[in-house]
Write a structure and sequence with these properties.
The chain is an alpha+beta fold. It has three domains: 131 residues, 3-Layer(aba) Sandwich (D-Maltodextrin-Binding Protein, domain 2), CATH 3.40.190.10; 108 residues, Alpha-Beta Complex (Dipeptide-binding Protein, domain 1), CATH 3.90.76; 225 residues, Dipeptide-binding Protein, domain 3, CATH 3.10.105. A hairpin with a 5-residue loop joins strand 4 and strand 5. The two termini are 25 Å apart. GO terms for molecular function: peptide transmembrane transporter activity. This is Peptide/nickel transport system substrate-binding protein. It comes from Bradyrhizobium lablabi.
């Protein structure tokens, strides 16, 4: 329990003023901009998270607005350096068997959970086999080969694999596969466990308070296993639905950090003129994402490939990049982010949809599909579900309505709160076209498999195959690629997979998303690795 009297006085009426009050009480309102030489201990960092998460149980829900909070609390076996190489964390070392079918981890001594329980191999075993393997939405991919976890002693955990899983070492941070406390969950219904929204981990910050609709407060873990860390006393994750108010909170110093483009792209140019603020595009190297359209193939005429292709041809991605993203990002060429080019997995040798005669092609495809224009010039009508994660997605939806009208498709825009939107699309399948942005992870297994494998048509699971794409040849290629230890052979397989998808067009790929973080210059060491906002702010500090 925190004794700060300001924290005890929080109410919904005063919540919007909370960060400013906390900042004043902890010495984070500044008159100058001289950089301190050494980290300063204490203070309260206020970060904007948009929108408010529905839960903090990111072992069961993978929405991108959960990890900025949850990874302050939960940790993984490893973390990653800027070259995306695994580095010790809860595990001090590891050894991959020559046949690739086991990984032996030596665990760190002296780590305790926030409830005082010591961290042991039993927690690793329970986390992987009883929680992550059973409930993590991407477990059928990330942990498909995991058959068991041996615990020869309290500080050794051995992941046993049916086949080599070359991607697994890229997914062992707290963001993807967090380690939970066995004693908290054992004997309970995992998904109903109260720690879902009052999480208990080993991380640098402990859960303090969640005032729904306003903020989550995290408090310094005074028993954190990294000596001297964290520097901050508190982190406030503040929820501000209105875009203008989010920007104002940063410009007035009431908030110190906003990641994952919580600030509208339209406001970034103005932000850059504010001497108190700065921006960075670092910290997203392991979280590439694509803005896409999901097309429900169960709703005619989207079951016809020609119609899906026509939609892809009708859209000018350069307009979206210019008018919606304000130049942040690049037009997508296919189903894999161009960031994978550096490791040889990306190819643009696919069907091209951004071509000069794209509108002529779109109209011919629709005519050929037996969809003539009516008296009003429209061929058919559909609903477009507007992404609820920010105003830029509404602007994109408005452009899409105009673009598709040119080829005779009449879109009706439907905007709902996040929970209703996700339920409508991924549980009820009551949608025609959806406009999410999809994380691609650090390996194509994460981005391609979850979105396009037939096995990933999983009712009620968010951000998986809700377009009902099913192609046995494609499934075979991806299943082979995920087990292939030879990098060059994997690259050949993924090139073929991208070509098949671009031809079948189960989704429409719009923009390679470039996230931007806005921060107060008094906040230092906030982005210390390629997971950026989705890893702990253990080294972040505020100047006095």
């Amino acid at each position: 329990m925190v004794d700060d009297p300001l924290l005890k006085k929080i109410s919904r009426r005063t919540a919007l003023a909370l960060p400013l009050g906390l900042a004043a009480s902890s010495g984070t309102i500044y008159n100058g901009f001289a950089k301190a030489d050494e980290p300063v201990r204490g203070g309260t960092m206020v970060m904007i998270v948009q929108p408010e998460p529905s839960t903090l149980a990111h072992y069961a829900v993978t929405a991108g607005n959960i990890p900025p909070i949850a990874t302050q609390i939960y940790e993984g076996l490893v973390t990653y350096d800027w070259d995306q190489n695994p580095q010790p964390n809860l595990a001090t070392s590891w050894e991959i068997a020559p046949d690739g079918k086991s990984i032996t981890f030596k665990l760190r001594e002296g780590v305790v959970f926030h409830n005082g329980k010591p961290f042991t191999s039993a927690d690793v075993q329970f986390s992987f086999m009883e929680i992550l393997k059973k409930y993590h939405p991407f477990a059928p991919l990330l942990l498909a080969e995991l058959t068991g976890v041996d615990t020869p002693d309290e500080k050794t955990a051995v992941l046993l694999l049916a086949n080599p899983a070359p991607y697994l070492m890229k997914a062992l941070a707290g963001r993807d596969l967090p380690i939970m406390c066995k004693s908290v969950f054992e004997g309970t219904q995992i998904l109903q466990n109260p720690s879902a929204n009052k999480p208990i981990g080993t991380g640098p910050f402990k859960f303090g308070q969640w005032d729904r609709g306003q903020f989550v407060r995290l408090d310094r873990n005074e028993k954190y296993w990294k000596p001297g860390l964290p520097y901050l006393d508190h982190i406030i994750a503040r929820f501000i639905p209105d875009a203008a108010t989010r920007s104002a909170a940063l410009e007035t110093g009431e908030a110190h950090f906003a990641g994952y483009s919580a600030v509208n792209y339209a406001d970034l140019a103005r932000m850059k003129t504010n001497p108190m603020l700065d921006t960075t595009m670092k910290g997203y190297e392991m979280t590439p994402a694509l803005s896409v359209l999901e097309l429900n193939a169960k709703h005619p005429p989207l079951d016809k490939k020609e119609v899906r292709q026509a939609i892809a041809y009708a859209i000018d991605r350069k307009v979206i990049l210019r008018d919606v993203m304000y130049g942040y990002g690049k037009p997508a060429t296919g189903p894999l982010s161009s960031l994978f080019k550096t490791v040889g997995f990306y190819t643009d040798d696919v069907r091209k949809y951004d071509v000069p005669d794209r509108l002529d092609i779109a109209n011919k495809l629709l005519d050929g599909a037996g969809l003539p224009r009516g008296a009003n010039g429209m061929r058919f009508g559909m609903h477009l579900e507007v992404n609820s994660f920010g105003e830029q997605w509404l602007r994109q939806a408005e452009y899409l309505k105009q673009a598709l009208a040119i080829v005779g498709i009449d879109l009706t825009l439907r905007s709902e709160d996040t929970a209703t939107w996700l339920r409508r699309v991924y549980t009820d399948y009551d949608y025609d076209i959806n406009e999410p942005f999809l994380s691609q992870g650090v390996d194509p297994v994460y981005g391609l498999n979850k979105q396009y494998l037939t096995s990933q048509i999983r009712k009620g699971v968010t951000f998986v195959n809700d377009s009902f794409y099913a192609n046995p040849e494609f499934d075979g290629i991806l299943n082979e690629a995920m087990r292939e230890p030879d990098h060059d052979k994997r690259a050949v397989l993924y090139k073929k997979a991208q070509q098949i998808l671009a031809e079948d067009c189960p989704l429409v790929w719009l923009i390679d998303v470039q996230y931007v973080s806005v921060f107060n210059r008094k906040l230092h060491d906030h982005t210390t690795g390629p997971l950026g906002t989705q890893q702990a702010f253990e080294r972040a500090w505020l100047e006095t």
